[in-house]
Specification:
The chain is mainly beta. It is built from 3 helices and 56 strands. Strand 55 and strand 56 form a beta hairpin.
Amino acid sequence: MFKTQLNAPSGPRVMKPGLPPARAPSLAPTFVLAPALVFAPAFVLAMAVYMLPRPLLAEPTRELSIQGPKEVFAGDPLSTSVDARGQISMGFETSDLAKLADYPVSSMVANEQGTLFAGTVGGGIHQILPNGTTKALDAEEKLMFSALAIARGRLFAATSPSGTVKVLTDGVARPFFNAGAKYVWAMLADHTALLVATGEPGQIHRVSPEGRSKVIFDPGETHVRALIQHPTRGLIAGGGQKGIVYQITGDETYALYDSSMDEVTSFAVDTKTGDLYASFVTESKPDALQPERMIGPVKGDTETDEPFPIKGSEVVRIAPNGRVDVLWNSQREGAMGLAFDGRKNLLYIATATRRTDRGRLYAVDPKNRDRLRLIARVDAPVISAVLIDSKSDAIILATSPAGRVLRVGPGFRSQSVYISEEQDLARLSRIGRIWFDADLPRGSKIELSIRSGNTREHDKTWSAWSKAVTDPDGADVDVTPGRYVQLQAVLHASAGERAPILKSLHASVVRHNVAPEVSEVFILRRGVQLEALPAEEEQDKTITLNTSVLNSLRAPEGRASRSRVRQSTRPGSMTIAWTAGDPNRDDLLFSVDIRQLKGPNPKWRSLARDIEDTFVSFDSRSYPDGRFQGRVRATDRPSNPPSLARTDENISEPFVIDNQPPTIKTLKANWLPSGKLHIEAEARDASSPISDADFAVDGSPWLMFPAADGLIDAKRERLALDFDPKVFGSKHAPTSGPRTLQVRVVDEAGNMATASIVVPASPAARPRR
């Protein structure tokens, strides 16, 4: 985003909060650059850097600013973390715990010793020890291990679509329970039994250590998808057809929340506050997701129309008093797993997306206004499971379809890198200073650098990164002038793991000065007089405060526009007007000349000099009749040193000055034997074509006087008409006396001439002797 810098020609100086004092304060409202005006190969633009004098880069300094979610998300977070407000922070170190080839991980659980068990589709169960040693268990099983649980030190594994549960002892699997259902979606160790949630039909079974079972819950849904034990509410279950969260206490069942989504996918609970978290997905188009809480695509994500079965997803918090808050929602991802870190007070959300995109891990901070942060992106499209390592406080992720188990954190990376989107400066530009706004705990550091080029996307023709700037107040950098630039921020945490938070990135830019453009010069209709009025001062007024009004008052006012004009009509007045602009948004002055198109080398005469208005009115009666042209010249001198000012001019189409009326020659009339009156006249004008001709008899209404050829369109016209006076009725019927014939003629300039004659009485009306 560009902002005008201090070189604005007028207006109050306003220091922008957060800008370093060594820098010029920002003036004028934010504006978006227009599309590029000049297209040229990169080598031509590069050569122009050396062929054009450096002073041509003389437009007002502008500020390139990257801040806020829209601009930050357009860049690539790479190894950083970004939150919903567009703030950038350190990313966590990430490492592989296990790579399971082409076996998607479908479930995961950990025991108290920190050993992980990852159930796959077709590849058995993989045991991952804290030292990284991996061992395959029940590898001959080719079905999906849809759920894992540890109860009384034993590992229970459910397969689908067989609906059976196995128990593994010393790595050996044996049958334990057959649910009589097609799927087993979740298992939970109770004090004395194993709880098993099934699909088709959707039920919950309580299974004793000996394998005896009892159905304790049957909601009438096709699937029961998720289970969790709440410290005060008891057993919580999630439906897989209606999207209902159930509280089950003994023989009583209570619906805590009925989502607009179809399916509950996971639960998490904050044991300190009693807050219950639930994630949902739907395969049908959901209701409007309100409020919108998500982090959209960032650079590197693919935007395709590839079909995706999940049409909507949300994560909610259900408070002990029953209040429900939406913490996250999306129509491009599905929340597949939840985990709550009680030590950090963070809720983690693992998602799935289209197969060409990357699964994401989010964190929600309930203690900080539910701040949403994108923690990591994985190479696989699905994060199928997430849990917290109780020993190290790291986050453990499982992915699909490429089966991997990853450790995220608990420490930060040695450094985290963010690179902005390529920024289009619209034309060749020179970079002055770069700086940033950040929270920097003692010992932490941010290194900001910039590079430039003349191709829309970065390639090997771009410059190298500039020297790194570590002072938030910024410093001058030396990079090759270019049309496009990118900013890079490298974040470093302190030795005590205190991390910086980057809020915005900035650069001062001087773009190549481009000449103004006078795009059109035209003439207003004859008689129009325009007069510029001074701008009105802002008056006190009553306003209704809302978001749009407040936003309009945040930016300092720019230079007042002289848009108030008085219009009047005056004889002989003519107005030359024009449209003009400046790609650099420089202030312009205009000079206007006029010339008569007469002779081989007509000379220009000045009408106005160095005016700000885009029109000039003049009295055409001081000029001879004839064809003329107007010329308008524009200069950007007010915004540039005089020696560097650039100009443009344009000339109007020829127009006519005509202040002399036409003449009426040979007006005559005679009576025809039919009793009609034959009228003839000749009209001439030296400068303009005749446009209208009318006649009247004895003060009758004016009637059109046609041309002999039927068209009134020339400087010389012969007018002729056979007229029957009876059309006027009795009031103007023939009498015995003479008649007065009047004729008027108007030229295209509006000049009018009249003439009259007395016509003898009609022979039919004369008295007989």
